[in-house]
Amino acid sequence: MTSLVPGVLRDEPQFARLFIGQSLSVLGDRVSFVAVPFAVLSVGGSATDVGLVAAAGLVPMLLFTLVGGVWADRFRRHRIMLVSDVVRCAVQGLIAVLLLTGVAEVSHLVLLMIVFGTADAFFMPAATGLVPLVVGPDRLREANALRGFVLSSGLVIGPALAGGLVAVAGPGGALALDALTFAVSAAFLARLRPRETAPEAVEDMAGGTFLADLRAGWVQVRSRTWVWSGMGAMSVYHVVVLPSVFVLGPVLAEREWGGAASWSVVVAAFGIGSVVGDVCAYRLKVARPMALAAAALAVASCQAVIIGSGGPLALIAVLEAVTGVAVSLFFVLWEAALQTHIPQAALSRVSSYDYLLSAGLMPLGLVLAGPVSESLGVRPTLYAMTFLAVPTALALLCVPAVRRLPAHASGAGSGTGGVRTAAAAGPP
Question: pLDDT tens for residues 24-72?
């Protein structure tokens, strides 16, 4: 029976604790992904309100992500994550109570999601740098593959569970489950005993002050063409494509597809594709991984036009599954590139710029998606999203540094055991 347990879980007990806690938390996140838009609609909110609430959870990324990156490189990362989990548990629990008692208003959801997003902004950079402190460098690829598999599997199980919970207990019941998963994750983090951060400092990164540390992280970004161009392409994906999933997809489902249950089918299909993409990424050995990643991003950027195609629900679900494969390929390959080529001591700061320039900018798209769709129509807006996003991804493929980036690091200054966990604002 023990042979069925992945070796990294048997051999790395600290990673096993992190993995179990985060796996349950991912399930709750996927439930809330379906529940929150319908929570807004259940209290009389409009498409614009759906985007406003979603944006409220992401605006703090603009304000606190860089702070979180510096803190995560300075302090114990798992403790930052623990505090974040406790705060997010309290927020989701309060939202659930407000919804279940029938007193929730859109303004309540906006304010609470701002608090939630603030805690999220500190969690993400800390999580980025934690994995190499709980798993040996020779098991990093296996650890990342397991995490990616759980993230993708959550897209299959979570929406199915969310659809049932929303139908039976309403959005409040679904968000109560999310609060519980944060509590469980916090309990596992409290028992975690990671290694200390590697003592060696990165060249020119010993400024000591907050601003000096922040500038040193930016040097790591701007000195690598493939990093800043990849972040730019991801920014377009998050600002232009993902609002079609977070805002316009649920609105279209509510109007034409029959509500949350149908939308859950589409999201679950995407999750199935993501699982396949994780398996492919684990097995593939690519000499130039970022070239494949850029091509995958172009396919992933077709989500908007698929959702707005007007085709049968089954066809939309199948095509979304294809984009799920592409999304997983892109993010796994991107993460592998960062963990290979970015020094561990700079990893949280580099990732904080990553989140800022991608997920942190997504509120702009979320806020604009509703008003633009009300002016132009939902489907024309979805088509325009694809027209902007796909050429951007193809432009990334044209960057020589992206096409030529090797799978393995060489020379001084390359990453030694660094790892970047999947971003929260990545695939839906």
Answer: 777 777 788 778 888 888 888 887 788 788 878 877 877 888 888 888 8
The pTM is what? 0.73
Q: How far apart are CA 163 and CA 344, in angstroms?
A: 40
CATH number of 11-191+209-404: 1.20.1250.20
- For 35, 264, 273, the CA distances from 158, given in Å and listed in that order, are 10, 9, 14
Judge whether 426 and 278 are in contact, CB under 8 Å. no
Q: C-alpha angle with apex 306: 380 to 248, nearest 5 degrees? A: 55
Q: Which residue has the tokens 């066809």?
A: 315
Residue 423 tokens, joined: 């971003």
Write the CB contacts of 139 (distance below 8 Å, at least 6 apart in sequence). Answer: 7, 8, 11, 12, 15
Helices 289-300 and 378-397: crossing angle in degrees, nearest 10, is 170
CA distances to 218, 295, 360, 409 from 288, rounded to whole Å, are: 25, 12, 28, 12
- What are 365-405's pLDDT values in tens digits? 877 888 888 888 888 888 888 899 999 999 999 999 999 98
